[in-house]
Every structure is written in C-alpha cells, then in structure tokens.
Design brief:
The protein is an alpha/beta fold and 293 residues long. Helix content is 29%, strand content 19%.
Length: 293
C-alpha cells in the first residue's frame, strides 16, 4: 500500500446534522468520519410548522463544525494532521441568513439571539410563498427572462423570496441587515477568518440557481428588476459581487483562529462552498449525458 501523502476534509451540513470525513486525496480511502446532531433543531426550537417556518441558529452550525472536525482529526495519528491540505463544505440550499457589515449573522448578536428572523432560513422554510408569487409575476413583465436558468418559476424556498419576506415582517432585522448570505458561502468565509461581508466569495452553485445570477445579464438581477418586485429590495443587489466562483476554486486559507482550534496549519486551503444535492451528483461521478440520482 502506498504511503498517504495528502489528506482532505469534506463537511456536509444537512437538515438535522453535520457530517465530516477525512479521506486520502489520491485513493479516496476514508480515514475517519463524524456526525453531530444540531441540539437546537433537535429540541424543535425556532420551528413553527403551522406557519411553514423552519429556522436554524448559526451556533448549531459553528458548534457542529468544530466538533466534527476535531472528532475526525482525533481518530488519526497526531502526525497525520500535517498532511491535511484542504477543507471543503456543502450545505442545504437555499438556506440564507441576514448578516451585518462584518459578515456576522444577526442571531449571533445579543439583541437578536432568540429572533428566528435573524437566523438561517432552512431550505424547507416556506414563509415566503407570497413573495415568490410576486417575483414570478414581476419577472413576466421584463423582456429579459431572469428565471430562464431556474426552471422558469421562482420558489418560496429561495434566496430573494426569503429576503423580501424578512424585510417585510421584521423592521429591526431590516435595519440591521447589510446583506443576505447563503449557508454554503458563509462557512468558508468563517473558516478563512473573514471580517468584511463585502469580501464573502459567492459560489455559482447557489448564486446561479437560487440567486438568479447569470453571465448573460452581468451577474445578479439588476436593481431595476429588484425594485420592481418591491422597493424594499432596492440596493441589495448592488451589495453583491459581479463575479462568482466554482467549487473547484479556493475561498482562501484556514485562519489562524481555526488553525489553533483544530491544531492544523494555516496553509490548509478552504474550498468554495456548494449545495449538497449538487455535490452529491459530483460524488456520483456525474458527467455529460449521464444521469445520477
């Protein structure tokens, strides 16, 4: 058997838990794994099924991330930690959250720590049904078909509908929200020690499907379209980058803070995040003219 030279870590944030594995980067052999159930979600906090409300606290994600990574690493010989070269994540989607100028989810501030509107809107949160209907109606009035790459109809489970809903129902969140960030984009930002929300690298996986980003119209939908849906969205598109990134690119290197927590080096690459179902297809070796489920 050839000697292990490089290890990589994969982290999958699901609906009820986060899972992590460490694998040999060349053979694909799994070296360790770990699972962490979200305690607040398990206790059914911030859920109101009668209102189609399913929210998750960012602490469930942060605690789960640290636990699973440490657990995986502790299953390996100590000297193997220096062989870890990269960490990449996928998450459910669309699962966005309101963040401040520093990229910190509002629920991590004391004033918002028990406010579900300041937490991540889980993919299956359907509180934005009316907003999705309005986006669809508005899109039909534009010459450019902004829904053409999203199946032709916008869903209440997605980025813009959820943002508009929270802006309408919670004035305090509306005032404190600098921008709206997908879970799969936020975790790499955290791991790389990001301090400015405007520096968050958005992955094309979520941006292209849930956020209506396309090269054809120069990025995310123009402000003209967003304002036409509702004036509350005025300016939010301007706070998003023109360029997005594919999952084979790097979001940066592991921050000193996280390197210390995990006893890893700061030269560990952190990949651009993506959505779980799409990465499942990659794991199933999807390729042109091939169907995998």
């Amino acid at each position: 058997m050839s000697k292990v030279k490089d290890l990589v870590i994969g982290v999958d944030f699901g609906t009820a838990s986060v899972r992590a594995i460490i694998v040999d980067a060349y053979s694909g052999e799994q070296k360790s794994s770990s699972v962490y159930e979200y305690p607040r979600w398990k206790a059914k906090k911030y859920i109101d099924a009668s209102k189609h409300q399913f929210r998750q606290h960012p602490l469930d994600y942060l605690e789960g991330l640290q636990y699973t990574l440490l657990d995986c690493l502790e299953q390996l010989p100590t000297e193997s930690r220096k062989l870890v070269r990269a960490i990449s994540v996928d998450t459910t989607g669309s699962t966005p959250v309101a963040v401040d100028h520093r990229g910190v989810p509002l629920a991590l501030h004391k004033d918002f720590e028990e406010n579900p509107n300041a937490m991540f809107f889980l993919w299956k949160d359907h509180t934005a049904i009316e907003e999705a209907d309005e986006i669809n109606a508005c899109a039909s009035q534009f010459e450019t078909d902004y829904l053409r790459y999203s199946g032709g109809i916008y869903s209440s489970e997605w980025y813009w509908a959820k943002l508009l809903h929270v802006l309408r129902v919670d004035s305090e969140v509306r005032e404190a929200c600098h921008t709206w960030v997908e879970h799969c984009d936020w975790i790499p930002f955290v791991l790389t020690g990001g301090k400015n929300a405007d520096d968050i690298k958005r992955g094309v996986c979520a941006a292209g499907h849930k956020g209506l980003w396309a090269e054809e119209w120069g990025g995310f939908p123009p402000n003209e379209f967003l304002k036409a849906v509702d004036p509350l969205l005025d300016g939010f598109g301007d706070r998003l980058p023109k360029d997005v990134h594919t999952a084979d690119q790097s979001a940066g290197f592991l921050s000193g803070e996280w390197a210390l927590k995990l006893d890893l080096q700061t030269d560990v690459l952190v990949g651009i995040g993506a959505m779980d179902a799409h990465m499942g297809a990659v794991g199933g070796e999807i390729k042109p003219y091939y169907l995998t489920k």
